[in-house]
Specification:
Helix 1 crosses helix 3 and helix 4 crosses helix 6. The chain is elongated, with a radius of gyration of 19 Å. Strand 2 and strand 3 form a beta hairpin. 28% of the residues are buried. The chain folds into 2 domains: 67 residues, Arc Repressor Mutant, subunit A; 139 residues, Four Helix Bundle (Hemerythrin (Met), subunit A). The N and C termini lie far apart (38 Å). It has 10 helices and 3 strands. A 3-stranded antiparallel beta sheet has the order 1-3-2. The model has no long low-confidence stretch (mean pLDDT 93). With 218 residues, the protein is mainly alpha-helical.
């Protein structure tokens, strides 16, 4: 990797992390000179990073005004959580039917992850492990298409999840939710597992909507 490519990758990683963790707020405007100063990098790496992020849908160019961080609307939140509810209830049902005892035991052992409130780096680490946990359920369901669609949906929701983490310290609550899901799967009780996953998704959605309603946001 050349030096120019290395700087462009550094700019891309820094910008994307700040967008995902909402340090750069959804709906806010940013300009190249501001970003050059923020990341102590040249104009070219910043420009290349912005092109990649625009292609991925995280920013939109505004002629003569710089860039807009893609907004998050209440409709976006409702649509994504409704779709996630459908996908994950299907995943737990199929996992109960198809997963081996070893797979379910491995899921239960993987529920100890958490985060530190107001620590943005730990948010990203936590959400990465959270994504892997929920994808592991879909993989245990033995349906590749379901796994792929759920992976895309969860990645699209990273910024939304970050909003919920900032509302209040829910680290212990979320850890308990993951353990409850794993316990429900190990019981191989479809109705109970669907009830547990629905409660966890509903709780997550409520945290995000509460954060959206805060007067200091957006």
């Amino acid at each position: 990797m050349t030096a120019d490519n290395s700087f462009a990758e550094q700019a891309y990683t820094g910008l994307k992390n700040d967008i995902l963790t909402c340090l750069l707020l959804p709906g806010s405007r940013i300009a190249q000179p501001e970003l050059v100063k923020r990341y102590a990098l040249g104009v070219t790496p910043i420009r290349e990073a912005l092109k990649r992020l625009e292609y991925e849908g995280f920013v939109h160019s505004l002629p003569r005004y710089g860039y807009l961080i893609s907004p998050i609307t209440v409709k976006d939140i409702e649509d994504l959580y409704n779709f996630r509810m459908i996908l994950e209830q299907a995943a737990v049902s199929l996992a109960i039917e198809r997963a081996t005892d070893t797979q379910l035991e491995r899921l239960k052992k993987g529920t100890g992850f958490s985060y530190v409130y107001k620590n943005r780096k730990s948010y990203l680490d936590f959400l990465d492990q959270n994504t892997h946990f929920h994808i592991a359920i879909a993989m245990a369901a033995g349906n590749r298409k379901l796994t792929d669609v759920l992976t895309t949906t969860l990645n699209e929701m990273i910024r939304i999840f970050n909003l919920g983490l900032d509302l209040r310290d829910s680290a212990m609550e979320m850890q308990r939710e993951h353990l409850d899901i794993a316990d429900a799967l190990s019981r191989r009780d479809v109705k109970y597992a669907q009830k547990v996953i629905a409660a966890q998704i509903t709780s997550s959605r409520q945290r995000v909507l509460e954060m959206m309603a805060q007067p200091t946001n957006f």
